[in-house]
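Usage

Read records sequentially. Each one opens with the input sequence:
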Amino acid sequence: MARPSPCASCKRRRRRCATDCIFAPYFPSDDPQKFAVVHKVFGTSNVRKMLQELPVHQRGYAVRSLVYEAKAWAIDRVYGCVGYIASLKNQLAEAQNQVSELQKQLDVAQAQELDLNHAANKRNFDLNQRPSREDGPSGLN
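and closes with the structure output:
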């Protein structure tokens, strides 16, 4: 029995969509671009083989991965998603360097604050140790 509306794969290939069509659950007819990008990069036959080799519960994840990678290849034909991953790694390294620099600046500021607090405490201690004017010249009454 045929489906009322063929999946994106069968529609693209102008074929009837069988009830057991492996593409139908993952490439609905209302999103033909999703199949088109995967077909352009991997080919229908290769995608069918990949899906057939996987257990049914993993096919959805595989299709999402194929779509993601195909879109990445459409954007960057040389590196694909590897280029995107490398870019993200570079951004992460830059962010980690910035955090490291900010941590150093924070450490310096905290050390300066400790020095200022220590100096202020020492000054207060010294002021409290001075003899008052009411005391005699030797500090004794």
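Summary fields computed downstream for this record:
- The chain has a mean pLDDT of 86.
- Residues 1-75 form one domain.
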